[in-house]
């Protein structure tokens, strides 16, 4: 039986992806990388430094900056991102998520955040939902990013559960792959074609409910 839930943050609980994009876009302009939807999508779930590398590569500029300069660019991006995060309020929680979190909490499920973002605790505070989570994985303690299962394995361990009794919720294909590799049940939120590896697909956060999950888990795998 399911005893815990492990949540991605960006794109599952709140739409911070657009804030990350806004901040990265300015860095891309600064280094002369053309911005595209494809580049923007490729940054989902990817760590800060890896994101910068992808942006530099897209403009063929990966060899033009020293490590110190890269640090400066990453710091500048984060400064702007945090300025945008300051404006987040509980109204920025995605539809259905508040009710779902409250329901899980009242049913005494254990809950953790498995986000690649070092800013996750700050975002949770601004959204007013930090108290629901028993733990937030610190991504600076990880050796490998998503799609590696490490962050999901660690999240389960932090809430004292075996991965087998945990459900992971993700909006990125790399995240779903990580949840599956960790041996947890995966819920993919978004385009079912992109997230076809997920055990359960919901097209929107509005579908997140214990009743819908129970129903989906009773269905035989196609
Ligand atoms: C992930 C986002 O959750 O966190 C990425 O999807 C982001 O876009 C990554 O780059 C790292 O975030 P931060 O806040 O540590 O720069
Ligand atoms: Mg995400």
From TrEMBL:
The active site is at residues 8, 10. The keyword Membrane does not apply. PANTHER family: FRUCTOSE-1-PHOSPHATE PHOSPHATASE, GLYCEROL-1-PHOSPHATE PHOSPHOHYDROLASE 1-RELATED. NCBIfam families: bPGM, HAD-SF-IA-v3, PGMB-YQAB-SF. This is Beta-phosphoglucomutase. Belongs to the HAD-like hydrolase superfamily. CbbY/CbbZ/Gph/YieH family. The record marks 115, 146 as: Important for catalytic activity and assists the phosphoryl transfer reaction to Asp8 by balancing charge and orienting the reacting groups. Its cofactor is Mg(2+). One of its GO terms (biological process) is carbohydrate metabolic process. One of its GO terms (molecular function) is beta-phosphoglucomutase activity. Substrate binds at residues 8-10, 24, 43-48, 51, 77, 115-119, 146. It comes from the Bacteria. SUPFAM superfamilies: HAD-like. Keywords: Magnesium, Metal-binding. Mg(2+) binds at residues 8, 10, 170-171. InterPro entries: B-phosphoglucomutase_hydrolase, Beta-PGM, HAD-like_sf, HAD-like_SPP, HAD-SF_hydro_IA, HAD_sf, PGP-like_dom2.
């Amino acid at each position: 039986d399911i005893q815990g839930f492990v949540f991605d943050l960006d794109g599952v609980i709140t739409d911070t992806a657009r804030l990350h994009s806004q901040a990265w876009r300015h860095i891309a302009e600064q280094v002369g990388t053309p911005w595209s939807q494809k580049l923007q999508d490729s940054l989902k779930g990817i760590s800060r430094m890896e994101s910068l590398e992808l942006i530099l590569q897209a403009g063929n500029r990966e060899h033009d900056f020293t490590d110190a300069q890269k640090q400066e660019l990453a710091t500048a991006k984060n400064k702007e991102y945090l300025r945008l995060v300051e404006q987040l309020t509980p109204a920025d929680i995605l539809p259905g998520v508040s009710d779902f979190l409250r329901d899980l909490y009242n049913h005494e499920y254990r809950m953790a955040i498995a986000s690649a973002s070092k800013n996750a605790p700050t975002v949770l505070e601004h959204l007013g939902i930090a108290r629901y989570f028993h733990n937030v994985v610190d991504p600076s303690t990880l050796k490998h990013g998503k799609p590696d299962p490490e962050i999901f394995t660690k999240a389960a361990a932090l809430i004292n559960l075996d991965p087998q009794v945990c459900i992971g919720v993700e909006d990125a294909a790399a995240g779903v792959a990580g949840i599956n590799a960790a041996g947890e049940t995966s819920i993919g939120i978004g385009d079912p074609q992109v997230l076809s590896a997920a055990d359960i697909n919901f097209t929107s956060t509005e579908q997140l409910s214990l009743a819908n999950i129970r129903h989906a888990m009773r269905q035989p795998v196609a």
